[in-house]
């Protein structure tokens, strides 16, 4: 879900039902990781809101969606220069994670997001 916050910039809101303990522990782990990450190639974390049955994670809005979404939108695979661009930024983000030290463990097209200005960001640490 997309929302605007005070100041007018857009954020993404990831809504997760917190019914079972396993989901809740995974969510806590993802939030802890996001709080530690401050890098242009990692989705920025802005906060959490708790409701009676949901956790809302507020983070960077990546208007183009995932690399998978982009390939559907353009109706083709990425060209070699496009792949190089995405990989360069993905590896930069991974290098940062390994330095702090965090392992992503689920690198795939749906977890690599792109902003409308072309920024590449790693997401989904759960």
From TrEMBL:
PROSITE patterns in the record, alphabetically?
A: PROTEIN_KINASE_DOM, PROTEIN_KINASE_ST
Q: Which spans are transmembrane here?
A: none
Q: In this protein, which residues make up the domain named Protein kinase?
A: 1-126
| UniProtKB keywords | ATP-binding, Nucleotide-binding
- Is Nucleotide-binding among the key words of this record? yes
Q: Which GO terms describe its cellular component?
A: cytoplasm
What SMART domains does the record point to?
S_TKc (SM00220)
Give the GO molecular function terms: ATP binding; protein serine/threonine kinase activity
Instruction: Note the PANTHER family from the entry.
Output: STERILE20-LIKE KINASE, ISOFORM B (PTHR48012:SF2), STERILE20-LIKE KINASE, ISOFORM B-RELATED (PTHR48012)
Name of the protein this chain belongs to:
Protein kinase domain-containing protein
């Amino acid at each position: 879900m997309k929302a605007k916050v005070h100041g007018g910039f857009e954020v993404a809101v990831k809504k997760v039902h917190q019914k079972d303990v396993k989901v809740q522990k995974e969510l806590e782990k993802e939030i802890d990781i996001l709080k530690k990450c401050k890098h242009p190639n990692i989705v920025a974390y802005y906060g959490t809101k708790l409701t009676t049955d949901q956790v809302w994670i507020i983070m960077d809005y990546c208007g183009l969606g995932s690399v998978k979404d982009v390939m559907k939108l353009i109706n083709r695979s990425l060209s070699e220069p496009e792949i190089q661009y995405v990989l360069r930024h993905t590896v930069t983000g991974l290098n940062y994670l390994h330095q702090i030290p965090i392992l992503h463990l689920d690198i795939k097209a749906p977890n690599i997001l792109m902003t409308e200005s072309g920024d590449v960001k790693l997401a989904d640490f759960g």
